[in-house]
Amino acid sequence: MLTTNKYRTHYCGALNASHVNETVKLSGWMHSIRDHGGLMFIDLRDQYGITQIVIDQKSSLFREVEALRLESVISIEGKVILRSEETINKKINTGEIEVIVESLEVISKSHVLPLQVSSDDHYNDEIRLKNRFLDLRRKRMQKNILLRSDIIQFIRESMMSLGFKEFQTPILTASSPEGARDYLVASRLHPGKFYALPQAPQQFKQLAMVSGFDKYFQIAPCFRDEDARADRSPGEFYQLDIEMSFCSQEDVFNVVEKVIYDTFNKFSNKNVSSGKFPRIPYLESIDKYGTDKPDLRNPLFMKDITKVFLDDRSEFKIFKNIIKSGGIVKVIIANVGAEKPRSFFDKLNNWARENGASGLGYINFESNSQGKLIGKGPIANNLKEDLLEELKKELNIKLGDALFFICDKYKKAVNFGSLVINKIGKELKLVDENLFEFCWIVDFPMYEKDEENGKIQFSHNPFSMPQGGMKALEEKDPLDIKAFQYDIVCNGIELSSGAIRNHDLDIMLKAFNIAGYNQKDIESKFPSLYNAFKYGAPPHGGIAPGIDRIVMLIANEPNIREVIMFPMNQKAEDLLMSAPNIVDDKQLKELGIDIIKEE
User: Which of 161, 145, 49, 164 is nearest to 97 (CA)?
Assistant: First the structure.
C-alpha cells in the first residue's frame, strides 16, 4: 500500500478497473512512446509495473513530451479511464485501463541510451556491466534481483523459525594460511601489517559455539581472490552460514533439507526432490558418476567390468594391454533406441577424441531376423559369443541398449566417464529440466597424498572431526580415514560444503600432526581456536550454502552474474566503479606502502 506523497498516489502496476474516474498521480520512467496521430501513448514504468498514459495532441504538454527520450523520468496527474475492448492488454496488470494526462512534470531528462531498457536485446558484458544501472532496469534483471531479495528474506525467516539466531561476524580479520588467496587490507595504525577480508566466517562461527550460543546463522559476505566461473563470482559472494552446537551430521542435514526444500519449492515452478536427500559416499560417487557433484536427473552411471576383458574369451587386445599396465574398464549402459544410425556412434567417437580420449568404444544391441539380441561394433566382434551372452545377462541388456566403454588408469577413466555420462545424457535428452534433484555427498577422505612430493595432506577441511576420533588417527592408515565432511549438490552443482567440527584439542593436535604440523604451528596459525578449545568446547557442526548459486538455480540463469546486482567481470574488474584502481601517493604513504613498478 502506497502512502500518498508529492510524486504519486499509486504505483504504476497498481491501477485497475476499480480506479476508473479517479484522479491519480504517477511517477516513473518513460518505457516506450507511440505516436498514433492525434494521441501519444506512453508506457510509464516503475519497479511495480507499467501503466499506459495518454496525451492528446491538442494538449500543451504534447510538444514538451515529444522532445523527451526514452528513460526520462516524469510525474503525471490524470484521470483513469477504461480502455476500449479491442485495446485491452491482458499481459499486464493494468491492461484494462489507461490514464488521460492532465498535468505533467519532467523530473529528469535522459540522454541517448547505450543499451535499450525496453527490450531483451543482447549486449556484451562490457556494455552491460559499465552501464549496470540501466541493465538493472530491464525486466529480466529486475525480476532476478527482486527474487534474490525475497529468497533471502524467506531463508532468514525460516532459520529463525527453527530457533537460529542471526549474528554478525567481522569483515576485517586475520589472513588465513589455509584455503584460497586472501584479499589483504593494509593497516594505517600498524604499518607493515595487514588485515584480510574473510574467506568465510569459519573460525568466528565455531568460536560462537564455544562461547555458549546454540544455533547461529548469517547471510554472510565472503571474499576470495579466485578466478571467475559461470557458477562462481570472482572476489565476493554470499552464503547462508550455519553452525549448531551439540549436533550430529544428521541434525545438520535435517535443518538444511527443510530450508532448501521449502525455498526451492516456494520460489520455483519446477519439481523439487522431497523427503530425505540421498546420501552418497564420496568414493561411491567418484566410482559411479566420475564426480563428487553428480547430476541425479541423469539416470546414467558407470559400472566396472574389467574382469570381462581379462577373460580368455576376450580377444580385444587394446583393453587387455591397458588393464595389464594398471588400467580398468568402465561401462555406461544407455538405451539409444533400436534403430540408432551408425552416425550417432561415430559422432560420439569424434567427440571423445576432441576431449583427449583415443575414442569411445561401444556395442549396440539390435534384433536379428530371428528376433535374437545381437551386439554390433568392433568390441562385440572381439568377444566370443558365450562371453557376450554372459555380459548381456549380467547387465540386463534390452533391445535398443548400447554399451559405451572407457579403458584407462582409474583416475583418468572416471574423470572421462563423467564427461561421457553428461554427453550421452544430453544427446538422448535424458535429463529432466523441470526438476531440482538434491543429494548429499558424505564420507570424504580426511587425508590425501600430494602427487608431487608424496606427503600426507588434508583433503578437505582441516578442522573436521575424523570418523572414529583419536582411535582412527592412531590405528588407521591416514588414507583410509574418513571425515565427518559433506557437500550438498543440486543438479550437478555444489551448493555447499560442511562438516562436524573437531572440538577436541588432543584430536586436533594429532590430526594436524599427521599432516605435518606441530603444536607450535597450530598455536601460531590458529591461535583463536587453539586457545578456545582449552576451556571446554561443545561438539558442533555446520554448513554454508551459497546464496548466489541458490538464486541462480531458482531463476534458471546460466551465469551467476545475472543474479548479482553489481558483479565483477571475468577479470575481477568492476567496470561501473572502475575498480580496482590506482590510489594516490598520499594514501600509500599513510599506509607505509611503496609500489614497485616493473621496468
Answer: 49
Fill in the amino acid letter for 326. Answer: G
Query: DSSP letters along 40-53, please?
Result: EEEEEEETTEEEEE
| Alpha carbons 148 and 154: distance in angstroms, whole number | 10
Which of helix, strand or coil describes residue 587?
helix
Q: Is 241 helix (H, G, I), strand (E, B) or coil?
A: strand
Residue 164 corresponds to which amino acid?
A: F
The grid cell for 77 is 496527474
pLDDT of residue 229: 78
Is the backbone peptide bond immediately before 580 cis, with ω within 30 degrees of 0?
Answer: yes
Contact at 8 Å (CB) between 289 and 418? Answer: yes
Q: Which residues contact 79 (CB under 8 A, 6 or more apart)?
A: 21, 22, 23, 24, 99, 100, 102
pLDDT at position 367, please?
83
Enter the C-alpha cell of residue 213: 550460543
Q: Name the percent of the chain in helix, strand, coil, to the closest 5.
A: 35, 25, 40
Q: Cα–Cα distance between 34 and 346 in angstroms, integer?
A: 55
Comparison of pLDDT for 338 and 389, the residue scoring more: 389
Pick from 130, 154, 260: nearest CA to 567: 130
Asked whether the predicted pLDDT for residue 171 surpasses 90, the reply is yes
Are 357 and 330 in contact by the 8 Å Cβ rule? The answer is no
Could you tell me which of 396, 415, 448, 402 has the C-alpha nearest to residue 328? 415
Rounded to an integer, what distance in angstroms lies between the CA atom of residue 134 and that of residue 31? 12
Question: How many CA within 13 A on the CB side of residue 591?
Answer: 16
- Please list the residues that pair with 407 across neighbouring strands: 329
* pTM confidence score: 0.92
CA–CA gap between residue 510 and residue 97 (Å, rounded): 74
DSSP H stretches of helix in 249-341: 249-267, 282-289, 306-310, 317-324
DSSP 544-563: --BHHHHHHHHTT-SSGGGG
- As a whole number, the mean pLDDT across the chain is 93
Phi, psi torsion values for 95, nearest 5 degrees: -65, -15
Q: Where are the beta strands (DSSP E) in 96-200?
A: 97-108, 165-166, 184-186, 194-196
User: What pLDDT is attached to residue 3?
Assistant: 58
What's the DSSP call for residue 4? P
Q: Which 3 state secondary structure label does DSSP give 389?
A: helix
Check if the beta carbon of residue 406 is closer than 8 Å to that of residue 302. Answer: yes
Q: Is residue 454 within a helix (H) or strand (E), and if so which, with residue range?
A: none
d(CA 221, CA 96): 44
Each residue's pLDDT tens digit, 122-149: 999 999 999 999 999 999 999 999 999 9
Q: Is 585 exposed, middle or buried (0-12, 13-18, 19+ CB in 10 A)?
A: exposed
Q: What are phi and psi of 93, to 5 degrees?
A: -65, -30
- Mind listing the pLDDT tens digit for each residue in 365-394? 988 777 788 888 888 888 988 999 899 999
**DSSP letter at 181?**
P
Q: Cα–Cα distance between 210 and 212 in angstroms, integer?
A: 5
Alpha-carbon Rg for the chain, nearest whole angstrom, is 31
Residue 106, C-alpha cell as written in the block: 519532467
